[in-house]
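Notebook, student rotation project (T.W.).
Task set for the rotation: take a protein with a known small-molecule partner, predict the structure of the complex, and write up what can be learned from the model alone. Partner molecule chosen: flavin-adenine dinucleotide. Sequence and SMILES entered below by T.W., checked by me.
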Amino acid sequence: MQNRAPQMQDWPLPKVRGKYVHDVALADLCWFRVGGTADVVFMPADAQDLSHFLSELPQEVPLHILAAGSNTLVRDGGVRGVVIRLGAAFGQVEPASETQLWAGAASLDVKLARAAADSSLSGLEFYRGIPGAIGGAIAMNAGAYGGETSDVLVEVEGVDRAGQLQVFSPADLQLSYRHNGHTDFIVYTRARFAATPGDKKTILAAMDEISAKREETQPIKSRTGGSTFKNPGGANPQGPKAWKLIDAAGARGLRVGDAQMSELHCNFMINHGRASAADLETLGEQVRTLVAKTSGETLHWEIKRIGDRGAGA
Ligand SMILES: Cc1cc2nc3c(=O)[nH]c(=O)nc-3n(C[C@H](O)[C@H](O)[C@H](O)COP(=O)(O)OP(=O)(O)OC[C@H]3O[C@@H](n4cnc5c(N)ncnc54)[C@H](O)[C@@H]3O)c2cc1C
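Predicted structure of the complex:
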């Protein structure tokens, strides 16, 4: 018992109105369908419940946040501590004014795009192409097809590690290409988005076009995590693109076990069914090495990797 690392049962969990689930297989909650278990997943009943939980939880308990799991690779050894997952209570999209909408952090991006289209509001069509939830979009400054979260975000509400409700402007979050510069722990709970009046037919046509383009160019029916690496040139359209560097390094289709760089979009990793998180991470690191050798460019992971490596790694 001496020098044993603290474990979940050593920490009392606050009494909440929401739900705790123990030993949760995180593979079921992430697009890659890999990874170990979480000690505890907490689903708060509402923002007040989340606030109470955070204010009462001992500071040393490790915390993670998971939304739709479309940008997260959970390692095989799983996640110690508590994973916060917002549920239906945070899933509403509703009007804030004639041209603005509130979206709960657990609502899927596509729900916001559809709600805007229903109100003949333009500017949020790009969310049709991103399979995550609003909390993940704010954390990643998600974007596609010429739009990104920082272009349309007006304000964000969240709860900090001490359980205090906080309000942020986009400037507070220092959003840049696939990056949120706000380093303190915060659970985003809802956000307000701005749009402009438009023609409903045109908006719906743009969304259909985005959807068709995605089906053509991305392996969206596979177990994937979207773009594995950030473009080294950031948002600059003239800058180096990760997929081009990967292609030039000969890594399109590269395989480690059942993990493969997609033939269709070579910056996407795919789990063909039996890949472990270690296979996927090893594949990614091999690609980084090949790209560094052939082009001198350093690729940085866009996918968030969480948890312990596990015994086999
Ligand atoms: C097929 C496919 C296509 C994709 N295409 C695109 C694309 O075109 N553009 C793009 O930008 N991305 C794309 N992605 C990646 C992914 O969808 C986005 O990054 C998305 O915004 C992540 O959202 P999520 O809800 O799945 O986040 P998760 O993967 O669950 O989490 C991602 C990060 O956000 C944090 N987070 C989640 N919710 C909260 C919250 N409430 N408060 C604080 N932090 C939070 C998590 O802790 C984690 O660090 C794609 C992914 C796939 C699988």
